[in-house]
Amino acid sequence: MKPVSPFREITPKGNHVAVRFEAADLMLPRGENLAGALLVAGVMPFRHTPVSGAPRGPFCMMGACFDCLVEIDGVTRQACMLQVTDGMEITMPAARGTDDA
Fold this sequence. Notes:
Blueprint: E1 16-21, E2 24-29, H1 34-40, E3 47-48, E4 55-56, E5 69-72, E6 75-78, E7 89-91
């Protein structure tokens, strides 16, 4: 999953680790912001809203908007508030509930 992305790594020769987003194997820079690293890797969207199915991805990058929600080890979390670690298994959160957050 490396389509054309307008985002670039600042230090592309850094220490990268293997993670998986949905069915795609990715190499992301260890310790970097997960949302930013996924954007650089060309991942978009991160999830779909439960009501309309509209695609969502990082918007505020500071934990306020919740648009970057991903599921890691069965727990839904904000990607912008996490660091990349080796072996992360990341999926789009399952559509649940009725709010369109």
